[in-house]
Amino acid sequence: MILESKWFFGEKYTVDGNPAMKLKQLPVFEIDGDERELQESFLELLIFELVRLNLLCTVVYPDDLQGQQSLYTLIREYDVVFVAGKTDLPLQKITLFPVINEKTGGGLECVVGDGDSFAAFLKLFLERLREMNSRMPVWGCILIGGKSSRMGLPKHLIKDDSGKTWLECTIDILKPLVDGIIISGAGDVPESLSGMMRVEDIPGVAGPLSGVVAATRRLPQVSWLLVACDMPHISKEAVDWLLGGRCPGCWGVVPRMEETGYFEPLFAWYDMRAGQLFERQLQEEVLRIGRLATHRKIANPIIPQSLRDGWKNVNTPEQLQQVKRME
Question: 62 vs 32, 77, 80, CA distance in Å?
Fold first, then answer.
């Protein structure tokens, strides 16, 4: 299947055949300065400030790199990657100077040892991170692989009063808000959705974690809006609120209910870097997807009262009848 995407300024770019941001659009920065001591002094100060903002950073040297792919791998593990030295790769550059001279005055530049210069650089650098974060593509992942044992029929095929299935309704809501959609899990889908991209659950792994990992493996360079198929009241407003919580250093927005403190991991947003956390859970055989909600890189905002219906799921025929009476 050809992967269509409306992001990256209208262009299409792939890594291993999958949608991906170009390196120059990712928080990977080449440090351009002739003196190793100058680079180390600057990076020590910069990383100290970034760690205070909950940003996970790493430094690599040109000799350690094995082409662009090694940087794509690193950026799925760290918020910011610094390459200490010149390369031939298309990276954003940070230029260092030992003293103020006529070359300074624009772009990501810093006079090492000058406090005012560093403060101005840090402000510009953080603005650049926020801009790049906002451009990170978001794909929708709709989970349909549940057994539906209590309902007695596949929940994604339940129809509303207009005759549309819940799956079709969910896709209609998400389509204008995300860059692409994957249906994750086994099961029949309406004919109208036969052309949608699909992934199968990980063999031998039960539960939502299987469908999430299948999606993150299929498209490792995007972030995810995860939605279970049994939430018929999700809304544009709820999606906008979730995505509004994205920021540099945040690897997911898993909201919670105010009264109970209960986390809602099945209508949540996950950064591409959360993929490694899901893989780790899988390796440790911890299949409860909600465990990720307590990770220090995951935000847990309280769901606003006006949006709470979006997180109500339907599991039984009795609950279904209640929903139909509300429609």
Answer: 12, 18, 16
Q: Give phi and psi for 198, each to the nearest 5.
A: -135, 150
Q: What is the CA radius of gyration of the chain?
A: 22
What pLDDT shows up at residue 10? 32
* pTM (two decimals): 0.89
Length of the chain measured in residues: 327
Give the residue extent of every domain in the chain: 22-135, 138-326
Q: Is residue 112 helix, strand or coil?
A: coil
Q: Read off the pLDDT of residues 134-147 as tens digits, 9 standing for 90 and up.
A: 999 999 999 997 65
Residue type, 143: L
Architecture of domain 138-326: Alpha-Beta Complex (3.90)
Q: What is d(CA 298, CA 171) in angstroms, rounded to the nearest whole number?
A: 25
- 22-135 is classed in which CATH architecture? 3-Layer(aba) Sandwich (3.40)
CB 223 within 8 A of CB 250: no
Which residues on neighbouring strands pair with residue 256, listed in sequence order? 263, 302
Residue 71, Cβ neighbours under 10 Å: how many?
20
